[in-house]
Amino acid sequence: MDTDRIDQIIDRYEGQASFLIQIMLDIQNENRWLPRFALERVSQRLDVPLSRMLHIATFYKAFSLAPKGRHQINVCMGTACHIRGAGRVLDTIRDLTGIGPGETDLELKFSLETVNCLGCCALGPVVEIDGKTHGKISAADTADVLDSYE
Amino acid sequence: MSDITMRIDDQEVTAEQGMTVLEAAQRAGISIPSLCHHDKLKPYGGCRLCMVEVTAKNRTKLVVSCVYGAEQDLVVKTRSDKIDKIRKTVLELLLARAPDSEILKEFSDEYGADKDRFEKEASFCVHCGLCVRYCAEIKKLHAVTFVDRGYRKEIRFVPEIASKVCNDCKECFPLCPTSYLQAAFVLSQSLISPSESSVTKHDK
What number does CATH give the domain A71-147? Predict the structure, then answer.
């Protein structure tokens, strides 16, 4: 992602400051994180203080100020999943990827996050990777599932 | 604009339209404790210390006086057992954050707050927002901001802006009710340019 692309996104919203969060989300979705130069560019174009953007970027969990992996793993830690062994699934993912919740591996392959409920408790334990739900996953299945991601 | 008359602690007080209860009280020389209020800044309602009891149309409620607008015939009580108890608890919670703040110590002597009541989570910032709001509203520099949210919320200097403007200003320093702001500034400074700030001073 370069400055031209960021300008294109800003232009989609006619450079209006009221679309700040939407613009930030578009950059986040495309780039998976918000690089500093992108924040500075948006701040400059929309005439919004950089401090305000940092406030927003750290307030919402949807934004990341650090590079994220190509695949986002969300491990459900809700009550039902917890009972059904989410802890063991998480430990396995930890061992396989070498990263803990909130971290990203050096190859930028995976980012790991724990979530509190994905709303499909009957499928527990649930792991969601790039929006795809892997239900009734066992610690043993985890390796196969992770292997299917490049 | 017509003036408003109201009663604060059995004293007849006149206020202008648009004033808050806290401002009306201060103008009449009645003191209400507050950490986050500043004459030049917009009302914020951050510290909750200025809690008072107001009675309007036969209904009594507890409100935060720095954001509650003055009304005609309002009856305000700035001290009562109930209010003192609330202020004491608020102080104790703030003291868990900033146990060594001088102004908090003064208030706690007055309200009998025990600084050891709650487990210490010394972050030294009480989230009054004075520095953030002063920098944004008065100076329009936006060099310091809140980041994160909830209990993890903290102030942070934005290096890109702070490195250009802060050294000539520092007007937010005396506003801080703890001394966290200065500490945060020194920290940012040493992260931006380790060679010329704290590191060398330390070596000398």
Answer: 3.40.30.10
